Amino acid sequence: MKGIRGDALKAGVRADIVTAALGDIRFDEKVVRFSRNQPEYKLAIWDYMAFLVDEARIADGRTMMRIEAKTLAAIEKTYGVDRFVLTALWGVESDYGKIEGDFFLPRALASLACSGRRARMFRGELIQALKIAAAGDVKLKDLHGSWAGAFGHTQFMPSTWRRLAVDFDRDGRRDIVNSVADALASSANFLRKSGWRSGLPWGFEVKLPAKYKGPVGRGKKASPATWAKRGVTRADGSALPRSGSYGLLRPAGRNGPAFLVSRNFDALYSYNAAESYALAISHLSDRLKGKGAFTKAWPTNDPGLSRAQRKRLQELLIAQGLYKGEADGRMGPLTAAAIRLAERKAGLKETGRPGARILEVLTGNN
Ligand code: CA
Predict the structure, then answer these.
(1) pLDDT at residue 43 above 80?
(2) Residue partners of 278: CB distance under 8 A and separation at least 6
(3) CA 181 – ligand 1 centroid, Å
(4) Higher per-residue pLDDT: 114 or 217
(5) How far is the CA of 281 from the centre of ligand 1 (A)?
(6) Which residues are paired to 261 by β-bridges?
């Protein structure tokens, strides 16, 4: 940890900020543990989608769109990124500012800068975070975020902040923690710089011919006319767009829903490199517009749960003496262990996964 203080001073961060941020800092093991377990890569797509695009997030998003209507309209005009996508991104990243992360950024980043293969990258992020505080854009005490150093309403990394954050409310500070206008405009700026094209849909659900053998993947883009020749139609029965270039996405393989996605989907992907993440934002933006759920179900007989259902599951586990934690909707190791116990009692395969089947079993027992 000592070397880090020296590095920060050498990089030109003011001594008082370095002392205030790193003075009595200790290594945070929790951060390093989290860094080895990233949910986007292990969860089934239907679990991921079920809690990110649930009824509560759709309803809250509509409320936030009313509250922030003026700001969203102004951002839309400046950057050409529509209000539905920006609101959906906000909802997925921080539940509309409700969950920005509890980790003090200097501590989290200093811990990551001392361990693991990305230590050097995190050292750079730490120094950038201290510079943000030193410049007065975001106060040091407000620099809280995820274990990985993403902070504010739209969860920028400090280096992303440096490149792309904007002062949309013109108070002289690029404050993505305390200003919704700055945060959402910064995200719009990010998307525009990542190739977002105004007016182009992210994509749409499609139907494929029974034995489709054509190209699959975001990178293999073709015109709607070419897709029509391959037998692809829109799932809602409407006509394919006349222009644009789209790639075929099948997140759960040949038996799940399929989508044609545009370069705007790729822009969302560049925000956080996971197709599931880009699909969650894309779908939530459609739901905020009033569109429905996907036509085709995910290929599982044990669907994922919304946040409300996850809480309900924990309440039932508590009532049956299997879980001693809180019913907070968070699926940590204690909840997983309790689910395994419940599954064993019910004669089901032990998975520890919060799904519709175990919820149904516990509801029946109660
Ligand atoms: Ca500002």
Answers:
(1) yes
(2) 202, 261, 265, 266, 268, 269, 271, 272
(3) 8
(4) 217
(5) 25
(6) 203, 247
Contacts of 196 (CB under 8 A, 6+ apart): 79, 80, 81, 263, 264, 267
In 3D space, the residue among 269, 294, 253, 254 whose CA is nearest the CA of residue 219 turns out to be: 269
Please report where in the chains the tokens 């920028």 appear, as a residue: 156
Residue whose entry in the numeric block shows the structure tokens 């992020």: 125
Fold category of 1-37+101-151 in CATH: Helicase, Ruva Protein; domain 3 (1.10.8)
Average pLDDT, the chain: 94
Task: Report how far ligand 1's centroid is from the alpha carbon of 72 (Å).
Answer: 15
Token pair in block for residue 29: 């093991």
What is 203-288's CATH number?
Answer: 1.10.530.10
CA of 133 relative to ligand 1 center, distance in Å: 14
pLDDT in tens, 166-182: 999 999 999 999 999 99
Task: Give 250 Cα–ligand 1 centroid separation in angstroms.
Answer: 40
Question: What residues pack around ion ligand 1 (CB closer than 5 A)?
Answer: 167, 169, 171, 173, 175, 179, 182
Give the pair of three-digit tokens for residue 69: 């209507």
How many angstroms is it from 10 CA to the middle of ligand 1?
A: 28
**Domain extents for the chain?**
1-37+101-151, 203-288, 307-365
Fold exhibited by the domain 307-365: Muramoyl-pentapeptide Carboxypeptidase; domain 1 (1.10.101)
Interval between CA 174 and ligand 1 midpoint (Å): 5
Phi-psi group of 50: left, alpha or beta (phi > 0 → left; psi -120 to 50 → alpha; rest → beta):
alpha
Q: With a cut of 60, say whether residue 39 has pLDDT above it.
A: no
User: Of 47, 55, 45, 52, nearest to 256 (Cα)?
Assistant: 45
Q: What is the pTM of this model?
A: 0.95
Q: According to the model, what pLDDT value does residue 29 have?
A: 87
pLDDT in tens, 251-299: 999 999 999 999 999 999 999 999 999 999 999 999 999 999 999 999 9
Centroid of ligand 1 to alpha carbon of 89 (angstroms): 20
